[in-house]
Design a protein that fits this description.
By secondary structure, this protein is α/β, with parallel strands linked by helices. It is 48% helix and 9% strand. Strands 2-5-8-1-9 form a five-stranded parallel sheet. A two-stranded antiparallel ribbon has the order 3-4. Strands 6-7 form a two-stranded antiparallel ribbon.
Length: 579
């Protein structure tokens, strides 16, 4: 279950601001109201009686039964899910809630949302639909029971839920139900039972809820491509956007998730290896060069005399360590080069005859315990190289001939570096005869971050640009708001709340986006309002003024330097920020 917990942390906990809190609040509210209706029905009240809806929002309406039924069956989004393309016309809705058999079946489902009553409700719905020539609406049927019980999830569209279910089964997190007649309801009950067991402690102490666990299934569906196998994604990414949007922070978070996914799947391969040992962060700057990154001549003392000697740069050394497995396979006599060249298709069975002989790294013992059909490329540990502010260096000078190796990974993409003739077995990655080679291993993931105001995305070398996937990072107002709301909830802070700063930042950024000489690339990132170190006794107004003077105004003045517009625009921006 550790992989499931990692995914919950990644999709829910670490992205608390991005989780639809409005949906969660509506979900909790409506299910609690259905619970009150259930209590009334158990007291033998009729579902159409006004007294049945005591304590709910519907009791104040002229016809509580119709208002409740409309919210449950007809409304486009009712707190459980949207109705998607499954629409019941207004005329048919009125006919449905006037049918005694339908009303009775719905009341019984609310009173006891069991598998049996769900099946009966489905049958009555179908009979009612056919009687009035309405369209088939399976999603609305599922949505009804999802409002009646958290035994099932809010992923009420069968194909969507089944995609998550197949993934859970395929990953070994869940065992497929053996009953061939098991349907959406049964699979949902199984998934929710598994989630309640996995998060029993969090449920007990209130760190999660059954509604949030149900929503987690939907977030799994929305992210299924990424979580199915994140290591099949493009292996070089650029995260770009305005300063302070958390590009490097999210890059670190992503690598931690990906490493944990690998570790959970292969616990016996290099168990001593940690995420921190598999990640390297460097920051580029204008004087950063090929010698720093790949290799170059540097002075060192030999026998007390200074001499120039070839030394590897940070990226080359990182690749030598990450490429241990490919290098060892390449070194297998006779068959090695061919095996290494087919790295993506190489299986554990192909290498078992060589483990413990030519393949001597301790991790091969763990790899050797895997099934013969397991892909070696999946079992080898992932390594992550993060380049902060990648666009501040002269990339053609830093990367040199690496553009070929970035696109063509492994020994097939090996290159001869600028100092190849000075390499030795101690500095090179591959040796063939008297030649020394460098390559970027398949298990190396390169993540670059860049502030678009330092140099526009368009000026990034096109040949290099196409080798990366580009992901924009924008200011996250919800993250600021949630962070400040948590701060305000701490003892002693309630009398001086700061959460209003989130709205101040939103208004300022809206004004910046509309300014022709600036635009979205010059918005103020949410990091400027995170972890503020001002005294907690300061009011919202006082903190806003301090943040403006300490951080935001100097940044805007730098943006506007030389434009001739600073004197007029700074006061306008200040006003947009709230004073």
């Amino acid at each position: 279950m550790s992989r499931l917990r990692n995914l919950y942390t990644y999709l829910i906990t670490n992205n608390a601001a991005e989780v639809d809190r409005g949906w969660l609040a509506d979900y909790i509210e409506f299910t609690s109201e259905v619970e009150k209706v259930r209590a009334s029905l158990k007291l033998q009240l009729d579902i159409r009686d006004k007294s049945t809806y005591a304590g709910t929002r519907f009791e104040l309406t002229s016809d509580p039964w119709a208002a409740f039924a409309e919210h449950l069956l007809y409304k486009k989004a009712n707190g459980i899910s949207s109705r998607g393309q499954s629409v019941l016309s207004d005329d048919n809705f009125q006919l449905f809630i006037a049918e005694p058999n339908f009303v009775a079946a719905l009341a019984e489902l609310i009173r006891d949302p069991s598998r049996e009553n769900f099946s009966k409700y489905w049958e009555v719905w179908e009979a009612t639909r056919q009687k009035h020539r309405a369209k088939a609406n399976p999603l609305l049927i599922n949505r009804t029971v999802a409002a009646c019980t958290t035994k099932v999830t809010s992923t009420v569209n069968v194909p969507d839920f089944d995609r998550v279910y197949r993934w859970l089964v395929g990953e070994g997190i869940l065992e497929r139900l053996s009953d061939p007649n098991a349907g959406w309801y049964d699979r949902n009950v199984q998934v929710m039972e598994m989630l309640r067991a996995a998060f029993a402690e969090e449920l007990e102490i209130g760190e999660t809820s059954e509604q949030l666990l149900s929503m987690f299934v939907w977030y799994l569906f929305e992210n299924i491509e990424n979580i199915s196998n994140p290591f099949t994604l493009k292996k070089q990414v650029i995260k770009y956007g305005a300063p302070g949007t958390g590009k490097t922070y999210t890059a670190m978070q992503s690598t931690k998730l990906f490493f944990d996914i690998w570790r959970d799947k292969y616990p016996n391969i290099a168990p001593e290896l940690t995420h921190l040992q598999c990640i390297k962060v460097v920051q580029f700057h204008p004087s950063y060069g090929y010698e720093d990154f790949i290799e170059g001549l540097r002075p060192e003392l030999r026998n007390g005399q200074p001499q120039l000697a070839l030394q590897n740069g940070v990226f080359k050394e990182f690749c030598r360590r990450a490429g241990t497995w490919e290098i060892e396979v390449h070194g297998i006599p006779s068959a090695g080069p061919q095996l290494a060249a087919d790295w993506q298709g190489l299986t554990v069975g192909d290498l078992k005859p060589h483990i413990g002989k030519e393949l001597k790294h301790p991790s091969w013992d763990g790899i050797g315990t895997l099934g013969d059909s397991e892909k070696v490329a999946d079992a080898v540990p992932p390594f992550f190289f993060i380049i902060d502010e990648i666009n501040r260096a002269e990339l053609s000078r830093v990367l040199g001939e690496l553009m070929f190796a970035i696109e063509y990974r492994g020994v097939k993409g090996r290159i001869s570096t600028q100092y190849a003739q000075l390499n030795t077995k101690e500095t090179a990655m591959l040796t063939t005869g008297a030649e020394f080679w460098f390559f970027i291993p398949h298990n190396v993931y390169i993540i670059g971050t860049m502030n678009t105001i330092d140099r526009s995305v368009e000026s990034f070398d096109l040949a290099l640009r196409r080798r990366f996937r580009w992901e924009r990072a924008d200011p996250d107002i919800d993250a600021v708001r949630l962070h400040l709301q948590k701060r305000d909830a701490e003892p002693g802070n309630g009398s001086h709340p700061w959460a209003g700063l989130a709205d101040d930042l939103a208004q300022l950024n809206e004004r910046i986006r509309k300014e022709e000489i600036l635009g979205a690339d010059y918005e103020i990132g949410h990091a400027y309002l995170m972890n503020l170190r001002y005294p907690p006794t300061l009011t919202h107004t006082e903190v806003r003024r301090s943040v403006w003077g300490d951080s935001i105004r100097p940044l805007l003045e730098e943006y506007l330097r030389g434009s001739g517009r600073a004197e007029t625009l700074i006061p306008e921006f200040q006003k947009a920020f709230g004073f």
